[in-house]
Amino acid sequence: MMDFLQSISKEDLSLLPIEEFPGRVIVVDTEKDASKAVSYLSTFKDVGFDTETRPNFRKGQSNKISLMQLSTQDTCFLFRLNYIGIPEPLESFLCNDSIQKIGLSLRDDFNAIQKRSKLEPKGFLDLQSYVGKFGIKDASLQKIYAIIFNKKISKGQRLSNWEADILSDGQKKYASLDAWACLKIYKQLNAL
Q1: Domain annotation covers residue 164
Q2: Is 172:78 a contact under the CB 8 Å cutoff?
Q3: Is 157 helix (H, G, I), strand (E, B) or coil?
Q4: What pLDDT digit, counting tens, does each position of 136-162 carry?
């Protein structure tokens, strides 16, 4: 078994080269496209998972989840939930415990999903608890990824408008990278 650093400093993290999602990004903004995307995703045993919500800078206000990212090793689907909600095929996928969805800090994502749908997510693995088995103490995706792959994930788009009419290339790359990175971390650790 490989030994990993337990933690990485902000200084060391800042020196690392930036990672980029190498695959194709498919924006899903109709129920028909959601159905096709879920059919494809259902052929995989493990997929990466993440969500984005438009930030709110007013105290006491919160927005509904805007985007859900589901990624294989070479393709990431960006579901525009602010347009299509959580259609039935996607709801079924999120409740299917035979397909493992790998994410980070899932409680926040589940709370956000609950504002759109009363579904009970099943088949999820939270990397924050999983990486502890490998001696990694850091809990952020950026630091976990850096510890394992010696590359950093840029967080430059995190506070952008996820409900924009059209997502920018920067937003698409950022959103895809997070879901894909969760899957990549899991696959790397699982192979040890």
Answers
A1: yes
A2: yes
A3: coil
A4: 998 899 999 999 999 999 876 666 889
